[in-house]
Automatic annotation (TrEMBL):
Domain of life: Bacteria
The protein, known as: Response regulator transcription factor
Residues carrying 4-aspartylphosphate: D170
Biased composition range(s): Basic residues: 37-60
InterPro entries xref list: CheY-like_superfamily (IPR011006), LytR-like (IPR046947), LytTR_DNA-bd_dom (IPR007492), Sig_transdc_resp-reg_receiver (IPR001789)
Species this chain originates from: Luteimonas gilva
One Gene Ontology MF term: DNA binding
Keyword line: Phosphoprotein, Two-component regulatory system
């Protein structure tokens, strides 16, 4: 039946077909459509999958990956840096940092603020031994071989002008052996010595000559590396001692009546607190200096002097004997015969400085 819409009469499909003189289409069988639906859906999914595989999807590039790829290329050190208009200052700073990093990577290792290379000299009469040792030293980090000498005479003549840090010295050489060569070298500045020889019986004499190390030929690379590290540690310790000598005074000016006495710090045996003064014991005599214990302690090298009590400082090299006194206390006997009692709060520092152990105390 029809219905009204907008004042007009509308007919259904059957009425419309009858009005135009046609037959009505047969009704669709929904069951058959439902049976064919799964197959159509599978076909549609296959078409979409085939179309998707043909389209190439562009993957986003993360900033970290972009920076990594950028760093893989080689840039000229002096190339210009392009700056933007909106944030030009920040880009300029970033460009300068990149240029500095590239310049640092291109610079030699010894110019990067590291300690300077270890300067070495080789003295050996055997050409093959010199060549092998020079090659092994060249493989070590920050080692520079300044010169090679085939005999002791030429080494004595030319080596002082080179100022090496260490000399690798053979023992048995014609005309002048290694020990005789050392005796002819100037005392200051004198390089460190490492003996390199095929004979092990000279080791005692080598260490009597204050050698840093004793290497037996053929020298193993690992053994040479250990020797180089030992040389570095000794040079570092020597530099620290030189700094300490420059930091702490070697003499003190002490008023003595109407005069001023210059007292060598090396002659001070111990220091006692006396009110607003300190008393310096020097050669059995006491000299008063207007100074506090904290102030005088700052002026004395802690490697040579130790505070054993709030009112006593002693020189370690002049301590002759230590006796347990009571719980946490000791009686320190000095070389002059003076006996000083330590304080309980200074027990650990005293034991550490003098190397005291429980077995030693027993």
């Amino acid at each position: 039946m029809g219905y009204r819409r907008g004042g007009m009469r509308c007919f259904g499909s059957a009425a419309a077909a009858a009005a135009f003189g046609r037959k009505r289409d047969p009704a669709r069988d929904r069951r058959k459509d439902r049976a064919r639906a799964p197959g159509r859906q599978r076909a549609r999914r296959r078409r979409l999958a085939a179309a998707g595989s043909q389209r190439r999807r562009r993957r986003p590039i993360h900033r970290a990956a972009a920076r990594h790829r950028l760093g893989q290329h080689t840039f000229a050190i002096g190339s210009a840096v392009r700056t933007g208009v909106r944030d030009g200052t920040r880009q300029q700073r970033s460009g300068r940092r990149n240029l500095r990093a590239l310049a640092l990577a291109a610079a030699p290792r010894k110019d990067r603020g590291m300690s300077r290379a270890l300067r070495a000299v080789i003295v050996d009469d055997e050409p093959l031994a010199r060549a092998r040792l020079s090659r092994l030293l060249g493989d070590e980090r920050e080692v520079e071989v300044l010169a090679e000498f085939a005999d002791g005479e030429s080494a004595v003549r030319e080596m002082p002008a080179l100022s090496p840090d260490v000399v690798f010295l053979d023992v048995r050489m014609p005309q002048m052996n290694g020990f005789a060569m050392l005796e002819r070298l100037p005392a200051e500045p004198r390089p460190l010595v490492v003996f390199v020889t095929a004979y092990s019986e000279h080791a005692v004499q080598a260490f009597d000559a204050r050698a840093v190390d004793y290497l037996v030929k053929p020298v193993a690379p690992d053994r040479l590396r250990d020797s180089v590290e030992r040389i570095r540690r000794q040079l570092a310790g020597q530099a620290s001692r030189d700094d300490a000598r420059g930091r702490y005074p070697e003499r003190l000016a002490v008023p003595d009546g109407a005069r001023v006495r210059i007292v060598a710090v090396a002659d001070i045996e111990y220091v006692l607190a006396q009110g607003n003064y300190v008393e310096l014991k020097v050669g059995g005599r006491g000299l008063l200096l207007r100074e506090t214990m904290a102030g005088i302690r700052e002026r004395l090298d802690p490697a040579q002097f130790i505070r054993i009590h709030r009112s006593r400082i002693v020189r370690l090299s002049m301590v002759e004997q230590v006796e347990p006194y009571s719980a946490g206390q000791y009686v320190v006997r000095m070389r002059s015969g003076a006996r000083l009692t330590s304080g309980r709060s200074y027990r650990a520092e005293l034991r550490r400085a003098l190397g005291l152990t429980p077995n030693a105390e027993a």
